[in-house]
Structure formats: C-alpha cells, structure tokens
Amino acid sequence: MSKLKSMSALESVAVPGRHGKSDGPAGVTLQERADLGLATLEVRKGQAAALDAAVQAAYGVALPNGPVSAVGKGVRFVGVGPGQWFAVSETHANEALANDLATKLEGLASVADHSSGRAVVRVEGPSVRDVLAKGLAIDLDPGVFGDGAAAVTNISHMGVLVWRDGEAFDLAVFRSVAGSFYGWLEEAAAAYGLDVVTTS
Predict the structure, then answer these.
(1) Which residue pairs from 145-154 have beta carbons closer than 8 angstroms and sit at least 24 positions apart in sequence?
(2) Strand 84-89 and strand 150-155: pairing?
(3) Last residue of a domain, one of 55, 83, 113
(4) Is 3 among the domain residues?
(5) In a domain, 27, yes or no
(6) Are 60 and 27 contained in the same domain?
(7) Is 7 contained in some domain?
(8) Where is coiled-coil annotated (predicted)?
(9) Is the pTM of this model over 0.85?
(10) Nearest-CA neighbor of 121 among 183, 66, 50?
C-alpha cells in the first residue's frame, strides 16, 4: 500500500523568491515550516500536577503557565488557555507527535492531532514587527513580547497562534485560510520586500 504524502499548505501560492520591493535586502523573510508534528493537549480533571510531572519526565520541561512557550526534548509547548497547550515538534513529524504524547500522557491529558489542519510559517527580518503590526492587535515590542511569548489572537480577521522564537515569529493558522493569510502577508510586506524561501 502506498503511503500518502503530506502536501504544503502554501505550495501553490507562496512562490520562492523576492516579492514587492526588489532593491536592497528584504525586510521580511518567510519560510513555511512543513512536516512539523502539531497537537493540542488538555489536562483532565484533577490531573494537573500529575500531567506536569509526566511531561517533565518525558520531555524534560515544565508545562508553561500562561501565554508563553517552553522547549523540551524535541517538543515546544505553547500555552493557549487554562490547562491547554499547543505542542510543536520537528523530530516527531506529522501524527507521530500526537501518538507520542497520547502514549506518554495516557490518562492525564486529552490529545488531538493538528498536523494536517494547520499551516505554520516563520517570519523574521528587520521589518517583521512593522509588517505584523498591520494585522496583529498586540504589542510586539521586545520588552513586552519577549522570547518565548505567545498569543492566541487574530491577524487581519483570521485566527492565529503566534509565538516568538529568538528574533523570529512563528504563526500557526488553520490550513483552510493559509492562502488568504499568505496573500495578506505578501501585500503587507510589499513595501519592505518579502523573501519567500524553500520550506523547511
């Protein structure tokens, strides 16, 4: 039986190369983070302490409290609500992450795979905050939205989960609006120059 191949959510719209302003360095660089493992987990009633202990034992990191993220062994946990986290992994691609979480956290948390339902892009560059500010109603100043900070919000009327990783911002949107999101971003970044690079 042939194995289904995962497809990029932006392959048909995010053409690699320079978009908008063509002279000088690009103000923003975009890269789709394909083949990530994406999952949500929600603590079960009365299991908060046990869940945190199990996550620390399995992944070497405490679950973050509030809208921040924490990186463990191959997994980033992003706080998205009380007792709820969004998990991201490069080493446990696609549904492998949800399977791993469900096995190691059995009875402590409800786990759902989101790998085929979300698109994740990484944007960075000297003008990235100016571009994102056109659609995000949150303060991205480094003194406010520091490394690891996260927010569940809207960008140009589309739901988005955003977290900061060093000087880059990762944004997760529902796959069904990925094309519209990219169209907005390309237009917002046109005056600064947008480089679309090969997906990771």
Answers:
(1) 148/64, 148/68, 148/69, 148/70, 149/67, 149/68, 149/69, 150/67, 150/68, 150/69, 150/78, 150/79, 150/80, 151/67, 152/67, 152/80, 152/81
(2) unpaired
(3) 113
(4) no
(5) yes
(6) no
(7) no
(8) none
(9) yes
(10) 183
pLDDT tens-digit readout, 41-73: 999 999 999 999 999 999 999 999 999 999 999
Number of independent structural domains in the chain:
2
Instruction: Locate 10 and state its tokens.
Output: 């932006």
Tokens of 179: 């094309």
* 78, 69 Cβ separation under 8 angstroms: yes
For 114: left if phi > 0, alpha if psi spans -120 to 50, otherwise beta; the answer is alpha
Domain range for 79: 37-113
| 171 pLDDT tier (thresholds 50, 70, 90) | very high
- Select from 46, 81, 113 the last residue of a domain: 113
